[in-house]
Predict the structure.
Amino acid sequence: MREKSKYCQHCLPAQHKNHILEYIEFFINKIISSFTKLPLLFLSQHQFQKISQQFSVFLIKFFALLGLAEFDYNPIESELRNRVLIFFKQGQELGLNLCAVKIFGNYNGEFRLKYKNKTYFYPGIPIKIKDFQSFERKIDNKAKFKQFLNNQDFPMPAGGTCYTYKTAKKIADSIGFPVVVKPASGSLSVHTSLNINSYRELKQAVKIAKQYKPEVMVEEFIPGDLFRATVVGREKIFICKKETANVTGDGKSTIRELIKEKNSDPKRGETDQKNTTLHKIPFNELLEQNLQQQNLTLDHIPDKKEKIYLHNKVILSQGCDIITKTNSANQATKEMLIDLARKLKTELVGFDFICKDVTQSPSAQKFAIIEANSFPYLDMHQFPSHGKAEDVAKEVWKLTLEKIGQ
């Protein structure tokens, strides 16, 4: 019998033993949010963010004086995530004076840029050198972003947020089953339950979501494919389709053999490899669970052209596919998402949306924007599994240098 995992099964493949830090973060954010509303403090949320950024830079410089921080012009690529590595490499190609920050011997995700006799620090993505993200909390908090979409009349799933099953039941009654239940903030689909069709399932889903954070979101389940649109500089847009890990049958190979064949693609790195975007499909407990739910095993032989989905969530480290869709996406969709980025007043944002046919207009189908991210995985556009690679890092650096040069 397989030994039970010591990590939370609702966070896999992320390895979390508990969610104490998530609860602490939740209540700290609530306190900060309350403080920014007090007139005596004269500090807006934007100013709190700016102070936080300045304090982070101060700490880096302070640690450097003590010899505890160093600046690495040739960082070890295997120790950096591809989502930030693409900007470092592009910066080097542009001939920029750029280095990675190491504190206590470890890379902390910060980078230093010296440009036109000035020194800048940025966390991962260079466009964050200046505080362009005054709407970050509104973007990353699912509940606040949903409220913003509603106020601006953008298409979104019906639903609401709650803290108890009683309120969740009222929301489900108002929108009807099936529904999706997830934490009001978080990423990688942790503690998310899809296609909930009964009160019994709803009660369990709320319990699962609340294990991660107290605030829960209940919204209608939208059938269709999942897409990511990244808007840079409120003008440029890049779109890709995110598809759960899968294999397509040839009528003679087992699922195990098909996975091994797909994993032989040199573009796919190991599950825990940092400097890669695409990953091999791992043979693990999560894979076996998902196959069992479909009454399948690794020795099953799919029919020719039959597609077998190996996971129920789109997670890069579990071998999902990324398909470029920028050119084929409907123009009305592009214009709508660029307009949304402008209304959010942000220079960089990633939107996840669901629809059945990305070539069709949003008005011609069930279309919903489900969430946004102020720190999107831009490397998905540069290293797709299918389709044309798009040089997003180059566009971000172009915009960044224009902004800091003003």
Observations:
- The radius of gyration is 22 Å.
- The CA atoms of residues 355 and 365 lie 7 Å apart.
- The mean pLDDT is 89.
- Residues 45-65 form the longest helix (21 residues).
